[in-house]
Protein backbone atom coordinates (compact mmCIF):
# COMPACT_ATOMS: atom_id res chain seq x y z
CA UNK A 1 0.00 0.00 0.00
CA UNK A 2 2.81 2.42 0.87
CA UNK A 3 4.39 1.80 -2.53
CA UNK A 4 1.56 3.58 -4.34
CA UNK A 5 2.65 6.95 -5.74
CA UNK A 6 -0.84 8.41 -6.17
CA UNK A 7 -4.01 8.54 -4.12
CA UNK A 8 -7.04 6.49 -5.03
CA UNK A 9 -10.10 8.33 -6.27
CA UNK A 10 -13.62 7.62 -5.06
CA UNK A 11 -14.86 4.38 -6.59
CA UNK A 12 -11.38 3.00 -7.22
CA UNK A 13 -9.89 -0.07 -5.57
CA UNK A 14 -6.47 -1.46 -4.77
CA UNK A 15 -5.56 -4.94 -3.53
CA UNK A 16 -2.94 -6.00 -1.00
CA UNK A 17 -1.79 -9.17 0.68
CA UNK A 18 -4.12 -10.52 3.35
CA UNK A 19 -1.61 -10.78 6.17
CA UNK A 20 -2.95 -13.13 8.86
CA UNK A 21 -6.53 -13.11 7.52
CA UNK A 22 -7.78 -16.37 6.07
CA UNK A 23 -8.17 -15.09 2.53
CA UNK A 24 -5.88 -14.66 -0.46
CA UNK A 25 -6.10 -10.90 -0.85
CA UNK A 26 -7.82 -7.79 0.51
CA UNK A 27 -9.43 -5.38 -1.95
CA UNK A 28 -9.54 -1.87 -0.49
CA UNK A 29 -12.36 0.18 -2.00
CA UNK A 30 -12.79 3.94 -1.68
CA UNK A 31 -16.47 4.48 -1.01
CA UNK A 32 -18.23 7.84 -1.32
CA UNK A 33 -19.09 10.14 1.57
CA UNK A 34 -22.83 10.85 1.77
CA UNK A 35 -23.87 14.38 0.78
CA UNK A 36 -27.64 13.87 0.51
CA UNK A 37 -27.29 12.56 -3.04
CA UNK A 38 -25.81 15.76 -4.43
CA UNK A 39 -22.45 14.29 -5.41
CA UNK A 40 -23.46 11.19 -7.41
CA UNK A 41 -22.71 9.04 -4.37
CA UNK A 42 -24.67 6.04 -5.67
CA UNK A 43 -22.76 6.10 -8.97
CA UNK A 44 -19.45 6.06 -7.13
CA UNK A 45 -20.61 3.30 -4.79
CA UNK A 46 -21.78 1.20 -7.71
CA UNK A 47 -18.43 1.77 -9.41
CA UNK A 48 -16.58 0.65 -6.28
CA UNK A 49 -18.56 -2.60 -6.07
CA UNK A 50 -18.07 -3.36 -9.78
CA UNK A 51 -14.35 -2.60 -9.51
CA UNK A 52 -14.09 -5.06 -6.60
CA UNK A 53 -15.61 -7.80 -8.72
CA UNK A 54 -13.43 -6.91 -11.72
CA UNK A 55 -10.28 -6.95 -9.57
CA UNK A 56 -11.35 -10.32 -8.17
CA UNK A 57 -11.59 -11.79 -11.64
CA UNK A 58 -8.32 -10.26 -12.79
CA UNK A 59 -6.66 -12.36 -10.09
CA UNK A 60 -8.63 -15.45 -11.15
CA UNK A 61 -10.31 -15.73 -7.76
CA UNK A 62 -13.89 -16.97 -7.53
CA UNK A 63 -15.21 -15.87 -4.12
CA UNK A 64 -15.49 -12.56 -2.28
CA UNK A 65 -16.96 -11.11 0.93
CA UNK A 66 -18.41 -7.60 0.50
CA UNK A 67 -19.61 -5.42 3.40
CA UNK A 68 -22.13 -2.57 3.17
CA UNK A 69 -19.60 -0.07 1.82
CA UNK A 70 -19.97 3.56 3.02
CA UNK A 71 -23.00 2.86 5.25
CA UNK A 72 -20.97 3.42 8.42
CA UNK A 73 -19.11 6.63 9.20
CA UNK A 74 -19.41 7.75 5.56
CA UNK A 75 -23.14 8.13 6.17
CA UNK A 76 -24.85 6.54 3.19
CA UNK A 77 -28.33 5.41 4.32
CA UNK A 78 -28.50 1.66 4.80
CA UNK A 79 -31.46 1.11 2.47
CA UNK A 80 -29.92 3.09 -0.37
CA UNK A 81 -26.45 1.69 0.16
CA UNK A 82 -27.42 -1.99 0.31
CA UNK A 83 -29.76 -1.63 -2.66
CA UNK A 84 -26.97 -0.02 -4.67
CA UNK A 85 -24.53 -2.79 -3.74
CA UNK A 86 -26.92 -5.60 -4.70
CA UNK A 87 -27.93 -3.81 -7.91
CA UNK A 88 -24.27 -3.25 -8.85
CA UNK A 89 -23.56 -6.96 -8.37
CA UNK A 90 -26.46 -7.90 -10.65
CA UNK A 91 -25.44 -5.36 -13.27
CA UNK A 92 -21.88 -6.66 -13.28
CA UNK A 93 -22.99 -10.27 -13.64
CA UNK A 94 -25.52 -9.39 -16.34
CA UNK A 95 -22.80 -7.71 -18.40
CA UNK A 96 -20.17 -10.41 -17.79
CA UNK A 97 -21.79 -13.60 -18.96
CA UNK A 98 -18.41 -15.37 -18.86
CA UNK A 99 -17.80 -14.47 -15.21
CA UNK A 100 -16.05 -17.15 -13.19
CA UNK A 101 -17.29 -15.78 -9.85
CA UNK A 102 -18.98 -18.54 -7.87
CA UNK A 103 -19.53 -17.20 -4.35
CA UNK A 104 -20.42 -13.70 -3.16
CA UNK A 105 -20.88 -13.16 0.56
CA UNK A 106 -22.71 -9.98 1.61
CA UNK A 107 -21.74 -9.44 5.21
CA UNK A 108 -22.15 -7.00 8.07
CA UNK A 109 -22.34 -7.09 11.87
CA UNK A 110 -25.47 -4.91 12.00
CA UNK A 111 -28.79 -6.72 11.93
CA UNK A 112 -30.54 -3.91 10.09
CA UNK A 113 -27.97 -4.12 7.31
CA UNK A 114 -28.45 -7.88 6.95
CA UNK A 115 -32.23 -7.36 6.79
CA UNK A 116 -31.73 -4.74 4.07
CA UNK A 117 -29.38 -7.00 2.08
CA UNK A 118 -31.93 -9.80 2.35
CA UNK A 119 -34.78 -7.56 1.16
CA UNK A 120 -32.87 -6.22 -1.84
CA UNK A 121 -31.69 -9.68 -2.86
CA UNK A 122 -35.33 -10.71 -2.95
CA UNK A 123 -36.37 -7.71 -5.04
CA UNK A 124 -33.36 -7.18 -7.32
CA UNK A 125 -32.69 -10.86 -8.08
CA UNK A 126 -36.30 -11.95 -7.66
CA UNK A 127 -35.41 -14.44 -4.95
CA UNK A 128 -37.96 -16.01 -2.63
CA UNK A 129 -37.41 -15.68 1.12
CA UNK A 130 -36.97 -19.41 1.50
CA UNK A 131 -33.98 -19.33 -0.85
CA UNK A 132 -32.28 -16.16 0.26
CA UNK A 133 -29.34 -18.00 1.84
CA UNK A 134 -28.81 -20.18 -1.21
CA UNK A 135 -29.47 -18.03 -4.25
CA UNK A 136 -29.12 -19.32 -7.78
CA UNK A 137 -29.90 -16.62 -10.35
CA UNK A 138 -30.08 -17.36 -14.06
CA UNK A 139 -26.31 -17.27 -14.48
CA UNK A 140 -25.20 -20.88 -14.33
CA UNK A 141 -22.90 -21.75 -11.46
CA UNK A 142 -23.43 -18.51 -9.52
CA UNK A 143 -24.18 -18.69 -5.80
CA UNK A 144 -24.99 -15.49 -3.95
CA UNK A 145 -24.85 -15.99 -0.18
CA UNK A 146 -26.17 -13.73 2.55
CA UNK A 147 -24.21 -14.85 5.57
CA UNK A 148 -25.62 -13.98 9.01
CA UNK A 149 -22.56 -14.98 11.03
CA UNK A 150 -20.17 -12.30 12.21
CA UNK A 151 -17.22 -14.64 11.99
CA UNK A 152 -18.04 -15.59 8.41
CA UNK A 153 -15.59 -12.91 7.33
CA UNK A 154 -13.01 -15.62 8.00
CA UNK A 155 -14.69 -18.00 5.59
CA UNK A 156 -17.16 -16.89 2.96
CA UNK A 157 -18.70 -20.35 2.87
CA UNK A 158 -19.64 -20.45 6.56
CA UNK A 159 -23.37 -20.62 7.10
CA UNK A 160 -25.22 -19.25 10.14
CA UNK A 161 -26.19 -21.66 12.86
CA UNK A 162 -28.17 -21.75 16.04
CA UNK A 163 -26.68 -22.34 19.46
CA UNK A 164 -26.34 -26.02 18.54
CA UNK A 165 -22.77 -26.28 17.26
CA UNK A 166 -22.16 -27.25 13.66
CA UNK A 167 -19.41 -29.51 14.88
CA UNK A 168 -19.55 -30.63 18.47
CA UNK A 169 -15.80 -30.38 18.87
CA UNK A 170 -15.82 -31.46 22.50
CA UNK A 171 -18.40 -32.04 25.16
CA UNK A 172 -18.32 -33.25 28.71
CA UNK A 173 -21.20 -34.20 30.95
CA UNK A 174 -21.18 -34.03 34.75
CA UNK A 175 -24.26 -34.59 36.90
CA UNK A 176 -26.58 -31.71 36.08
CA UNK A 177 -24.04 -29.90 33.87
CA UNK A 178 -23.42 -30.15 30.15
CA UNK A 179 -20.48 -28.35 28.57
CA UNK A 180 -20.23 -27.84 24.82
CA UNK A 181 -17.31 -26.35 22.92
CA UNK A 182 -18.80 -24.48 19.98
CA UNK A 183 -17.56 -22.67 16.91
CA UNK A 184 -20.10 -19.91 16.31
CA UNK A 185 -20.95 -16.26 16.74
CA UNK A 186 -21.82 -15.39 20.33
CA UNK A 187 -24.93 -13.46 19.23
CA UNK A 188 -26.46 -16.70 17.91
CA UNK A 189 -26.50 -18.23 21.38
CA UNK A 190 -29.93 -18.67 22.97
CA UNK A 191 -29.09 -19.06 26.66
CA UNK A 192 -29.82 -17.49 30.03
CA UNK A 193 -26.51 -15.68 30.41
CA UNK A 194 -23.75 -14.50 28.06
CA UNK A 195 -20.40 -13.73 29.68
CA UNK A 196 -18.54 -10.70 28.34
CA UNK A 197 -14.86 -10.01 28.95
CA UNK A 198 -14.45 -6.24 29.04
CA UNK A 199 -12.51 -3.34 30.58
CA UNK A 200 -12.79 -1.72 34.01
CA UNK A 201 -14.52 1.36 32.58
CA UNK A 202 -17.26 -0.80 30.99
CA UNK A 203 -16.79 0.98 27.68
CA UNK A 204 -18.09 -1.83 25.50
CA UNK A 205 -16.80 -0.37 22.26
CA UNK A 206 -13.29 -1.28 23.42
CA UNK A 207 -12.33 -4.91 23.04
CA UNK A 208 -13.17 -7.41 20.32
CA UNK A 209 -15.71 -9.44 22.32
CA UNK A 210 -17.47 -6.56 24.08
CA UNK A 211 -17.56 -4.49 20.89
CA UNK A 212 -19.51 -7.19 19.09
CA UNK A 213 -21.82 -7.71 22.07
CA UNK A 214 -22.51 -3.96 21.96
CA UNK A 215 -23.35 -4.13 18.25
CA UNK A 216 -25.60 -7.14 18.69
CA UNK A 217 -27.34 -6.04 21.90
CA UNK A 218 -27.82 -2.39 20.95
CA UNK A 219 -26.86 0.90 22.60
CA UNK A 220 -29.21 0.27 25.55
CA UNK A 221 -26.71 -2.16 27.05
CA UNK A 222 -24.07 0.58 27.19
CA UNK A 223 -26.61 2.99 28.69
CA UNK A 224 -27.38 0.52 31.47
CA UNK A 225 -23.66 0.06 32.18
CA UNK A 226 -23.22 3.82 32.44
CA UNK A 227 -26.23 4.24 34.74
CA UNK A 228 -25.65 1.29 37.08
CA UNK A 229 -21.85 1.38 37.16
CA UNK A 230 -20.75 4.99 36.64
CA UNK A 231 -17.38 4.28 38.31
CA UNK A 232 -16.84 1.09 36.34
CA UNK A 233 -15.91 -2.21 38.00
CA UNK A 234 -12.81 -3.93 39.32
CA UNK A 235 -11.60 -7.49 38.95
CA UNK A 236 -13.44 -8.29 42.18
CA UNK A 237 -16.94 -7.55 40.82
CA UNK A 238 -19.24 -8.41 37.96
CA UNK A 239 -21.55 -5.99 36.20
CA UNK A 240 -24.93 -7.48 35.29
CA UNK A 241 -27.16 -6.02 32.59
CA UNK A 242 -30.11 -7.15 30.53
CA UNK A 243 -29.50 -8.93 27.24
CA UNK A 244 -31.58 -6.53 25.13
CA UNK A 245 -31.35 -7.68 21.48
CA UNK A 246 -29.26 -10.73 22.42
CA UNK A 247 -31.03 -14.04 22.94
CA UNK A 248 -30.32 -14.11 26.67
CA UNK A 249 -31.77 -12.79 29.92
CA UNK A 250 -28.57 -11.22 31.21
CA UNK A 251 -25.03 -10.37 30.26
CA UNK A 252 -22.32 -10.76 32.90
CA UNK A 253 -19.55 -8.24 32.25
CA UNK A 254 -16.31 -9.12 33.98
CA UNK A 255 -12.75 -7.87 34.03
CA UNK A 256 -10.27 -10.71 34.04
CA UNK A 257 -7.06 -10.36 36.01
CA UNK A 258 -3.98 -9.74 33.91
CA UNK A 259 -2.29 -12.94 32.87
CA UNK A 260 0.83 -13.83 34.79
CA UNK A 261 2.60 -16.99 33.75
CA UNK A 262 3.67 -17.45 37.37
CA UNK A 263 0.06 -17.45 38.59
CA UNK A 264 -1.54 -20.79 39.26
CA UNK A 265 -4.27 -21.94 36.90
CA UNK A 266 -6.43 -22.91 39.87
CA UNK A 267 -6.74 -19.29 41.03
CA UNK A 268 -7.79 -18.20 37.57
CA UNK A 269 -10.37 -21.00 37.33
CA UNK A 270 -11.68 -20.19 40.81
CA UNK A 271 -12.25 -16.60 39.77
CA UNK A 272 -14.23 -17.57 36.68
CA UNK A 273 -16.32 -20.26 38.34
CA UNK A 274 -17.08 -18.62 41.68
CA UNK A 275 -17.70 -14.98 40.77
CA UNK A 276 -21.39 -15.45 39.86
CA UNK A 277 -21.97 -17.06 43.27
CA UNK A 278 -20.10 -14.30 45.08
CA UNK A 279 -22.24 -11.73 43.31
CA UNK A 280 -25.42 -13.37 44.55
CA UNK A 281 -26.37 -14.79 41.17
CA UNK A 282 -28.10 -18.13 41.45
CA UNK A 283 -26.60 -20.13 38.63
CA UNK A 284 -28.37 -23.42 39.24
CA UNK A 285 -30.22 -24.48 36.13
CA UNK A 286 -28.92 -21.58 34.08
CA UNK A 287 -27.21 -21.80 30.72
CA UNK A 288 -24.02 -19.80 30.23
CA UNK A 289 -22.05 -18.91 27.13
CA UNK A 290 -18.49 -17.70 27.65
TrEMBL record:
Pfam families hit by this protein: Macro
Domain Macro: residue ranges: 1-125, 166-290
Signal peptide segment: none
Gene3D superfamilies per the UniProt record, alphabetical: Leucine Aminopeptidase, subunit E, domain 1
InterPro entries: Macro_dom, Macro_dom-like
PROSITE patterns in the record: MACRO
Classification via SUPFAM superfamilies: Macro domain-like (SSF52949)
Domain of life: Eukaryota
The name this protein goes by in its record: Macro domain-containing protein
Organism: Octopus vulgaris (Common octopus)
Amino acid sequence: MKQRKSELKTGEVVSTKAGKLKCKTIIHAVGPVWNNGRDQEMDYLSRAVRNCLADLEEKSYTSIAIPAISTGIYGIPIEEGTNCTVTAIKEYLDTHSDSKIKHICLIDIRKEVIRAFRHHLETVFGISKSRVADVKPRLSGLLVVVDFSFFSVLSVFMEPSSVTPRTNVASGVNPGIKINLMIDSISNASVDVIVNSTNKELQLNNGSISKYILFAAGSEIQDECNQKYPQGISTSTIAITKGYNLNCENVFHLVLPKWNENSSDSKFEEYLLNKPVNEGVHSKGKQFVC
